[in-house]
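Before the break, one more example. Copy the sequence into your notebook; we will annotate it together after we see the structure.
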Amino acid sequence: MKVLVNIFHPNLAESNVNKAWMKRLEKEDVTVNNIYERYPNWEIDVEKEQELLLKHDRIVFQFPFYWYSTPPLMKKWLDDVLTFGWAYGTNGTKLHGKEFVLAISVGGPQKSYRAGGYNNYTISELTKPLQQTANLTGMKFLTHFVQYNSVVVTEKEVSESAECLTQHITDPALNPDVALKRILDEMAEKDVTL
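Here is what the structure looks like once it is written out:
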């Protein structure tokens, strides 16, 4: 499985969590694509980005959560790269079957992202537009990875988070179809019936 990590952080040099994630991922057999560094003038090479998508099976979108949304260049990237007739619409099937994963850093604690918390909604609820983007383009939306409290985490916690992220995005069983097949195979091997 080939993994592409598109990093969308407007100030990665000052980042605590996202920078550590990137440095850890660069040690893995994954493609790291730092979008803000690659396109400082926001002139996205659509053909090059589409080519990268085609070469990979799992696409990870790594970004800090800003005002319950993505950084602005990520929105532009989605608008420019996921074109009609290529990613969706008539004959827009190039991404069908690929996997879509979010890796998000948020400043607030996990308990604030729920009904009754000061952010009122879960990360899953707040990322519905991205989930629908995956659906529209024929990609399989997989479980996201979130680092809460990113503005106050310790260096040790950041390092642990980077390890957990790496395991998360490279685990074939992140895909529920793969996970289910493993469970069913284990049941068959043990001759388990329900």
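The helical segments are 17-25, 35-38, 46-54, 72-81, 123-126, 128-136, 155-170, 176-189. The two ends are 32 Å apart (CA to CA). Try to locate both features in your own notes.
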